[in-house]
Design brief:
heterotrimer; A alpha/beta (260); B mainly alpha (317); C mainly alpha (411); B: mainly alpha; 2 domains; two-stranded antiparallel ribbon; C: mainly alpha; MetI-like fold
């Protein structure tokens, strides 16, 4: 068996995702490298977010959705019956498109996730470490008890990242984390990702090609195809290859902006 | 990065214990979900109880040799003391008062809704809507007082005391209409504001006046929602008790003349059960038969209005 | 070519003017519907106020001057007791003393007894407020002619005493104390049933049940229908189930209470609880729906279970909305009358309810009974009771609005 492939954080095999009868994502085989940033790019509506949400089983909340094929983490299929989706989400954290802090204090935003997951250490320390990890500590250290809603959008998004790293996942999924932010906040998130990658595997969905080229090590290009208009990965390689000498004509068209 | 973040890195041995992803037995979670389901299901149980209770007692009534199904539904005299149980004597009053109520509530409620939705400025709405809400929040027994001690004397002055008695269906019906007005107004307004703005703009772009836009484009587009509002209003009128119990008199009489006093189904139930009534008599059981009719009629009306609303929604998607 | 088919120049101007006139007329019509509604509301409120205050013509059966040398108003407690002892039969005095020992009664109470039992006021006629204010001369003339020797006095039927005295068969001495306590008990029982059950059901429907499942659809439709069932039908349900089938429980027989039947506060409260249940559920569902999905996703994203998400995020954020809805449900329970008649509110009761197994009356029941009486003084106290009821409801609703504004969140 070649399931134990330590350099891969997660891999998919023949993964298809359905909404009712509609096959939104079809036949995806990806091996996500550990400790790297992998970007998923492609035109809107091609199933990037659907694929991303499949990794931590967020699609479970769409009543009609189901999955064919496998997503393997440590050689275990995350969709097999005995797997606990709650545990999966604890191991695979997620940062959403729009910053969505809890309507609680900054401190509580971080402490809550740790607490429900049975964190026993020093909570103050954890909060500080997480905020430092998300490069937010200096800005908020004097107002930890204030509402998270008082922060700017960029700060809120970094708080969401801090919240995620506080529960020490192995993988962090980011669903267009900077699309709702201004350029300066975006830059800070991107810098942060470079620091985070020392400890975490990051998968990011983005519609911003420059961003993918700037931050990622690997890039997966998705596109709609076939009569069913299902999304699939048409090319997956090192980012510099994807952006300089892609193997697929459609990828080249897309990354050079020739795609209608 | 500082050493502190290092400590946040995933613990290495996780790789060798992937078993931890296994589904945990979360007993509390399952138990809670079960309790919540039972609680949700309780509402079904309430409906079932209503049907069983009313049906059971009504069956006792229909099985009594003194009465028959045919007599109950086809005759027009209701006089339990001499063994006459023709529900039409009560239905006629219910129909008359409800019809008057709708005659009042329909034009007023619909006009209010159109004004609020199509004409009123946000400021005017913020004043006018709470007034309708207050009107909707007044207990019906207070409306009963109002009917008996204000509207009836007023109507008697207008029509003449010899034409209109102290108890009459007209006054009860009119006040019931005022009571239902806010319901019809708010439901219709919801339907009107659900009409997409593009339709409104299209009408204005063709050079329509506000009146033409609202009557010829927006109201027709919201017609099913307005229809649902009317039916719900009617169902409220049929089931309303206190106004008629106070103001429309305590004699069961088969009549459709609004100037006369007559007892509705609801008022009859309230009057008889308010007195000293012994259980398991035919009078007692007859009340359940009336209540069953009432329940079935209002249920049918409510289901009908929901059906209309759901169809309406599909059209817009 | 088609151009000519439309009105032009002068015709066009006329045509447009005519359309605007129609539009204006109808706008006025629409607005007047609202004005009629406002007029009706004002008439209702004025009518109630009109009834609760005004001139009263009354006479004393016994002249106070004959009973006591000092004016009765100036007598102290011991003098009042002595007065009662002298003028009442021994049996009547002892009966009063048994109900509540004379010496423990306040001066005001004793004064009331003297007026009620010895002087014996009889109300001959009441006048509404506006007639009293604007037609005083005519009233005085009428009284002088029709009721020679009677006294004319401006009276507010709504007094602090009206709130604190129990019911009485004489309108002049009746109060709403018993009814207020009854309403309070009944609503507390109703809410303590409907709130947990209603919120639980709402959580199940919004957070657990699959939106598409048949069962969920049935429950949802059923709740909408229950909200439309006439309140009197709930009364019949309460009568058959709580009053009769579960009499042993609702009468307190299971708990050793012997002197009661199933027509108790408990039966009324449970009936009312079932009546407001759909209202509580629908309001709670709305409040839960208003909690944005991003918050749920955030919670699930850090590995929360469903219940942890609901308990720590959904419920706290929905709470103001749920509370507002519950207060509105409460005010519905306060004003409902028909089911209480069916379940068997007592027609006459002057003792405060002592627990869930007591007989009871409630504010709207009193209003109903007093309105149904023929004598105008009962209409006057009905009006006073309506003011009490409306103030109570207004307070509840104002609290709800305040709560909503205070805790309204912007996501």
């Amino acid at each position: 068996m070649q399931t134990e492939t330590p350099q891969y954080a997660i891999e998919t095999r023949n993964l298809s995702i359905f909404y009712g009868p509609f096959e939104a994502v079809k036949d995806v085989d990806l091996k996500i490298e550990k400790g790297k940033i992998t970007a998923i790019i492609g035109p809107s509506g091609c199933g990037k977010s659907t694929l991303l949400r499949a990794f931590n089983r967020m699609n479970d909340f769409v009543p009609t959705s189901h999955v064919n094929g496998e997503i393997l983490m440590h050689g275990i299929n995350l969709y097999s019956k005995e797997i606990d989706p709650v545990e999966v989400r604890r191991r695979i954290g997620m940062v959403f498109q729009k910053p969505n802090p809890f309507p609680k204090s900054i401190y509580e935003n971080i402490a809550w996730g740790a607490r429900i997951n049975g964190f026993k250490g020093n909570m103050d320390e954890l909060v500080e470490q997480s905020l430092r990890g998300a490069a937010l500590w200096d800005e908020v250290k004097d107002k930890l008890k204030e509402s998270a809603y008082a922060l700017s959008g960029g700060q809120q998004q970094r708080l969401c990242i801090a919240r995620t790293i506080a529960i020490q996942p192995e993988i962090i999924l980011m669903d267009e984390p900077a699309s709702a932010l201004d350029p300066i906040s975006t830059l800070r998130i991107e810098e942060l990702m470079q620091e985070l990658k020392q400890n975490y595997t990051i998968i990011i969905v983005t519609h911003n090609m420059q961003q993918a080229a700037r931050v990622s090590d690997f890039t997966a290009m998705m596109m709609l195809f076939g009569e069913t208009r299902s999304g699939t990965v048409i090319e997956y390689d090192k980012t510099d290859i994807i952006f300089t000498r892609p193997g697929d004509k459609r990828t080249e068209d897309y990354v050079t902006g020739r795609f209608g | 990065m500082t050493t502190e973040t290092q400590s946040l890195a995933p613990v290495p041995e996780q790789n060798s214990v992937p078993v931890s992803l296994r589904r945990k037995l979360r007993l509390g979670e399952g138990l809670l979900e079960a309790i919540l389901f039972v609680v949700g299901f309780l509402t079904i149980f309430v409906t079932v109880s209503i049907v069983v209770v009313l049906g059971d007692q009504a069956l006792l009534f229909f099985n009594d040799p003194q009465v028959g199904f045919r007599e109950f539904f086809l005759t027009t005299q209701w006089q339990p003391s001499i063994g006459q149980f023709g529900i039409w004597a009560l239905v006629s009053a219910t129909l008359t008062t409800s019809a008057i109520a709708m005659l009042v509530a329909l034009p007023l409620g619909l006009s209010s809704a159109i004004y609020l939705s199509e004409y009123a400025s946000p400021r005017a709405r913020s004043v006018l809507k709470p007034i309708l809400e207050v009107l909707a929040g007044i207990p019906t027994v207070v409306y009963g007082y109002f009917a008996l001690l204000f509207v009836t004397p007023l109507l008697r002055n207008l029509i003449g005391t010899e034409n209109l008695g102290v108890y009459n269906m007209l006054s009860a019906g009119v006040v019931m209409g005022i009571m239902i007005l806010p319901l019809i107004a708010s439901m219709s307004e919801d339907a009107l504001s659900a009409v997409p703005n593009s339709l409104r703009e299209a009408a204005y772009a063709m050079g329509a006046t506000p009146f033409e836009a609202s009557i010829q484009v927006i109201v027709p587009a919201a017609l099913s929602g307005i229809g649902a509002a009317i039916i719900v209003g009617l169902s409220r009128a049929v089931g309303e008790t206190m106004i008629v119990a106070v103001a429309s008199g305590a004699t069961s009489k088969f009549t459709f003349n609004p100037l006369e006093a007559a007892e509705t189904m609801t008022a009859h139930i309230a009057r008889i059960s308010g007195g000293d009534l012994s259980y398991n008599t035919i009078d007692y059981n007859s009340l359940f038969a009336i209540a069953l009719v009432l329940f079935v009629v209002t249920l049918a009306l409510n289901l009908f209005s929901q059906w209309i609303v759901s169809r309406f929604r599909e059209q817009y998607e | 070519m088609a151009k000519d088919l439309y009105p032009n120049k002068d015709d066009l101007q006329k045509f447009v003017d005519a359309r605007y006139r129609t539009a204006w007329v109808w706008q006025t019509v629409f607005l007047s519907a609202l004005l009629i509604a406002i007029l009706a509301l004002s008439a209702l409120i004025l009518n109630v106020v009109d009834g609760a205050f005004g001139y009263v013509v009354y006479e004393f059966k016994k002249d106070p001057a004959l009973v006591s040398e000092k004016p009765i108003d100036d007598l102290n407690q011991t003098e009042l007791i002595a007065l009662l002892k002298d003028n009442l039969s021994r049996g009547a005095y002892n009966k009063l003393n048994n109900e509540k020992v004379m010496e423990t009664r306040s001066e005001g109470e004793l004064y009331g007894l003297v007026i009620e039992r010895i002087i014996q006021v009889k109300t001959l006629k009441t006048y509404p407020l506006f007639e009293s204010l604007f037609n005083r001369a005519a009233i005085e003339a009428e009284v002088a002619e029709k009721f020679p020797g009677a006294r004319l006095e401006f009276r507010s039927w709504l007094t602090p005493d009206f709130l604190t005295t129990p019911m009485s068969s004489r309108a002049e001495f009746a109060g709403v104390r018993t009814a207020l306590f009854g309403t309070l008990w009944m609503v507390s029982i109703a809410i303590s049933f409907a709130l947990p059950v209603g919120i639980g059901a709402a959580i199940y429907l919004q957070e657990y049940a699959s939106k598409k499942s048949l069962m969920n659809k049935i429950i949802q439709t059923n709740i909408n229908n229950l909200a439309g069932v006439p309140s009197i039908v709930y009364g019949m349900l309460g009568l058959a189930i709580f009053v009769r089938a579960f009499e042993a429980l609702t009468s307190g027989a299971l708990f050793g209470v012997t002197d009661s039947n199933g027509r108790t506060i408990l039966s009324a409260g449970l009936t009312m609880g079932i009546l407001v249940l759909p209202l509580v559920i629908i309001n709670a569902q709305e409040a839960i729906k208003a909690v944005p999905d991003s918050i749920r996703q955030a919670a699930y994203g850090v590995g929360a279970t469903r219940w942890q998400t609901v308990w720590s995020h959904v419920l706290p954020n929905a709470l103001p909305g749920i509370l507002t809805g519950s207060i509105l449900a409460m005010s519905r329970a306060v004003g409902e009358t028909a089911p209480l008649i069916i379940v068997g509110a007592s027609t006459f009761i002057s003792v405060d309810p002592s627990g869930p197994f007591s007989k009871f009356t409630a504010l709207p029941i009193q209003i109903y009974q007093w309105t149904a009486r023929a004598q105008s003084e009962f209409h006057a106290i009905a009006a006073a009771a309506i003011i009490v009821l409306l103030v109570l409801l207004l307070t509840l609703n104002a609290t709800a609005i305040l709560l909503r504004n205070r805790f309204q969140r912007r996501y």
